[in-house]
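cron nightly-structures :: item 1 of 1
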Amino acid sequence: MEYASKDIRNILVAGHAGCGKTTLTESLLYLSGATERMGRVEDGTTASDFDPEEARRKASLNSSVIPVESNGTKFNLIDVPGLFDFETGAAEGITAAESVLICVSGRSGVTVGAEKAYKLALKNNKARMVFVTKSDLENSDYFKILEQLKIKFGPSICPCVVPARLDDGTVAYINLFSQKAFKYESGKQVQIDLPDIGHRFEGLIQAMYEAIAETDETLMEKFFEGEPFTTEEIVTGMAAGVRTGQITPVFCGSAVNLQALDMLLYNMHKLLPSPEHNSVLAENANGEPVELTCAEAAPTVAYVFKTVADPFVGKLSYLRVVSGKITAGASLVNARTGETEKMGKPLTVLGKKQTEAESIGAGDIGAVAKLVSAKTGDTLCDASRVVKLPAPVFPKPSLFMAVTVAKKGDEGKISSALARLMEEDPTLSYVNNAETHQQIIGGLGEQHLDVVKAKLKNKFGVEIGLEAPRIAYRESIRKACQKQGRHKKQTG
């Protein structure tokens, strides 16, 4: 099914390792009816952690695209790893998204990963939303986390759904927009009377009204006259604030027990920007800026934000269509090389599952297999309008190890297999050091290189060992001096 750009939301799901990003995308997928049963990270059965290494390590190592279709809206959730050795995922994904959903664990609060995700959103000028996961656990403290969020991220933080523990120990969720409370019985929403959370309630409503009043002058006047806002005014004011980055709304719930996720989905649709309103700046061949709008009738521009080296399918390029649309057999120019690429069948991707599609429309995300020259960060466009989008900024490799070969005769295989992996992961580096005659591989950390080693074995059948590289010590001449020497020659 094809969606109009106004009904698409491209959202990067980011945060610290283990805060519940993958479980959240899995729960939303299950709620939308796309999967029969909910996968678990511990069992390696989730849709986004499909790599055998991810199942083994019980953590995401690559970014993956999970489209969730609900009530006529398509949410392209880009689930990225929280481990800092695999930052590539977030650097790739941010270029394809309009907004960032920052996951914060109700147990551990605002950690470094959440701060990194927030800074990434700010730097790339994306709308932000916070979701506090694991809110139903005994030791989760929502209000403490709210304080931390305000201290770390400033006054833009605005609570929208807050949890309250009832007398029987279950958790109810108060929606501050409608001022109604709900509890969840095996994933089903049940409305209940507003639980008493004391003076906090008035304070929360007041804080939300203040944030909304700042987005619009008529709302500001209404606020000063002390009139209450209608639910519609709250939602439109909030959406305007989120689009400009003035407001970062905070939601909460439990992904494992499917609590308050319906409110999150509804508000992701209502508050987060669609690609339709989002114009992108590119530059033409002369380096002049060109504004691209998300229109299907415009000449096609697509951006390669991720590449996967699959030993069976060959190269799979993930595309974010900025304008126009991609169909099978279309010829597009690669702005970096100037070569023409012929498009194969467009694919819609859900984790590892690829389905053939008629086309990928403007604002949507899909994939095309076997592109010849395209690599991550390239722009593919119609010959009538060749433009280039800014390339993503990836972290530089910081740990270097020397490669040793387990089996004789595998030396030649290593460089070709690593070349394939480097297409997939731009933070990898590989050089043949002329001075020490060692093959040196560089990555973001020990885990990163360990995963590369495992991938070489599983995907390409090449076994390597890693050891500390030899260092070529050099000496330099510091000053000039004179010396007399005698050479004695002995004969006979």
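cron nightly-structures :: done
The CA atoms of residues 41 and 333 lie 40 Å apart.
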